[in-house]
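Protocol step 4 of 6.
Sequence for TraE family protein (Ruthenibacterium lactatiformans) entered exactly as in the expression construct, tag removed. Do not edit the line below.
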Amino acid sequence: MIKTLTRSIRLEKEKFHIPHSVQDAIPIRRIWPDGVFQTGNAYSRSYRLTDINYAIASKADKTAMLLDYSELLNALDSGASAKITINNRRVDRRQFEQELLIRPQADTLNEYRQEYNDMLRSHAASNNSVVQERYLTLSAHKRGVDEARTYFQRMGGEVTARLGQLSSQAEELDASARLQILRDFFKAGQPAVVPFNMEQRAKRGHDFKDWFCPDSLEFYADFFKSDVRWGRVLYLQDYASFIKDDFIMELCGLDRSMMVSIDILPVPTDEAVRGLQNKLLGVETNVANWQRRQNNANNYTANVPYDMQLQRKETTEFLNDLTERDQRMMYGLVTVVHLAESKEQLDADTESLLSVGRKHLCQLSTLRWQQRDGLDTALPYGVRRIHALRTLTTESVAVLMPFKAQELNHTNGIYYGQNAVSGNMIRIDRAQLLNGHSFRLGVSGSGKSMSAKEELVEIALRTKDDILILDPESEVRHEVA
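Step 5 output, structure tokens:
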């Protein structure tokens, strides 16, 4: 076995304790205000990643994005593990409408505001109520928190630079932001009465886990129950020989609260090459011994068995990838946790996820009697309790592309339409953009003037901005009048 994997399993191994409360079932041991968590024997830090427009890119652009993403994976340090998490977070409908609707003002236009709000409500009714967020969690076994901070500072700069090549940004999450992710998962639909304040809770002697833990957490053979909701953890058991780059996107396409995590354990190249050379030497020895036995039996025309030929071919190709194509050897694990309001809905959603796997010639399986370990692995704590790892190259991991389509959803922004890829509403506040200018392209009759009029109306109803119109064709004379 590769030494990196053996060392990782040994360091992650903990003495089992029977949890006597929900708080005991959470693997976080200690937190710091800057977002560093101590989970088990390791320290972890999370980053929020902005999405990129991968799904709608051309074939050439997708290839370039895959190469840039491969460089990011190659930049991961061999002394630590990484977890990429896609979080399908359900939006609170009431809070969403409060941010979307135009508030009444002390003028004579409230009648129009009410009519425009009715139109926005109708659009919000067909809107996808799930928002996807992406996180990168780095974990490392260090002797103390100061050493861990130094490591995360170095790796954070490297990750940010590589993500910049992908037009994505990485935001370091502090303790409040990381705990908010867990609260949204365990207590969806229950907004916090007060925001998390580590100093105040410490003064009162409150455990930080009380702020996000559910009231009950029960684990069964192939599912778990969190308060009144049901959940199940799956993992990718068998990989196809060729996986399409939209596999992860389709897994996350379910309109449910769920998380998909990709655990990555990089292996040093020299150690990987040495291990593959030893394996290839063993395969060649087995082939030579088999041929010697056939020669002793006077069977000089016998062909080498297919399984030996296949093993020799795959090992040789893997070794060439590492030595000639600048690939790295990595251990990968894909876990999925999804929640539902009833057991029947949970079973139906599980079957939908399994069908997505079968469509891509992969096999997703339920973790039996390992639901707690699977939940700890899938959530962005920074731990890995499931060891069903698969040996992959950098390109094989990069194909599990976590990016989909960039969202534009500014608070109190102007409604511009619906994202064709994600199905979410597009709300833009031009003041928050790097460049607030815009222009409209389209054939005659496609609705350019109509969309401009809609924007003018919402600006007039929502803000007190002055509007200057240059209209040589007098297309908006009725609206202005």
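Step 6, annotate. Residues 64 and 475 are 43 Å apart (CA to CA).
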